[in-house]
Specification:
196 residues; 63% helix
C-alpha cells in the first residue's frame, strides 16, 4: 500500500511541486497566465473595438504604467516565467497530458527565443532583419499585437488540454500518477519521477 501524500518524505522542491503540491502549483501558474491573457485581450479590445492607436493601446497595467508596455525586460521576463513553470511542472504529467504539456513547453521555448531576440536588439541598439525598430522573426510577417495573441494562443491551448487530461486520467495514466491532482496518490512515485 502506498503511503498518503502527507507521509511522503521531502525529496526536494521539484519533487514536491510535481507531487504533493502539483495542483496548487498548477493553479498558481494558471492565475499568472490568465492575468497575462487579460492584458492582451484588453489591448486587443482597445485597438479593434475602441479604435485606439496601437501606441495608446496599453492594456490595463499599461494605462497606469506606460513604460511596462514598452519594456522588453518585462516581456522577456514573462516569457522566462512561462518557460520555467512549463519546464518545472512537467514531471507531474503522464500519458496524453504529458504529450500536450511538452507541446506547450516546446512552443514557449520558441516564444522565449523571439523575446530574447527583441531584448538583444533593445539592449545592443542593433536592429536585426534590416528593421528600424526591434523585430522578432515572425514579426516580419505579423504585427506585434497579433503575433503575441497568436503565441499566447498556441502555448495556452495545449497547456489547457494537458491540464484537462491530467485531471481526467484514464486508468493507465492514473496508475502512473503520483501527484496531488487526482486527490490521492495513485501510482508508484518512482515511475512518475522517472517520467520527468
Amino acid at each position: 500500500m502506498t503511503p498518503p501524500l502527507a507521509a511522503a518524505p521531502s525529496r526536494g522542491l521539484l519533487a514536491r511541486l510535481n507531487g504533493a503540491h502539483h495542483r496548487a502549483a498548477l493553479n498558481g501558474f494558471l492565475v499568472i497566465v490568465l492575468a497575462h491573457w487579460a492584458e492582451h485581450l484588453v489591448q486587443a479590445y482597445q485597438i479593434w473595438v475602441l479604435g485606439q492607436p496601437r501606441p495608446q493601446a496599453r492594456g490595463v497595467l499599461g494605462q497606469f504604467f506606460p513604460w511596462l508596455v514598452s519594456s522588453e525586460w518585462l516581456h522577456y521576463g514573462y516569457a522566462i516565467v512561462m518557460l520555467v513553470f512549463l519546464f518545472a511542472l512537467r514531471g507531474g504529467f503522464v500519458g496524453r497530458a504529458r504529450t500536450w504539456w511538452m507541446v506547450a513547453l516546446a512552443l514557449q521555448f520558441w516564444h522565449h527565443i523571439e523575446h530574447l531576440l527583441l531584448l538583444w536588439q533593445v539592449q545592443s541598439g542593433t536592429m536585426f532583419f534590416g528593421q528600424k525598430v526591434p523585430a522578432s522573426i515572425l514579426q516580419l510577417v505579423l504585427p506585434r499585437v497579433e503575433l503575441h495573441l497568436f503565441y499566447n494562443s498556441v502555448v495556452f491551448i495545449p497547456m489547457v488540454v494537458a491540464m484537462y487530461l491530467h485531471l481526467r486520467p484514464n486508468r493507465r495514466e492514473q496508475e502512473l500518477m503520483s501527484c496531488s491532482c487526482t486527490g490521492h496518490r495513485a501510482g508508484n512515485p518512482s515511475l512518475a519521477a522517472h517520467a520527468a
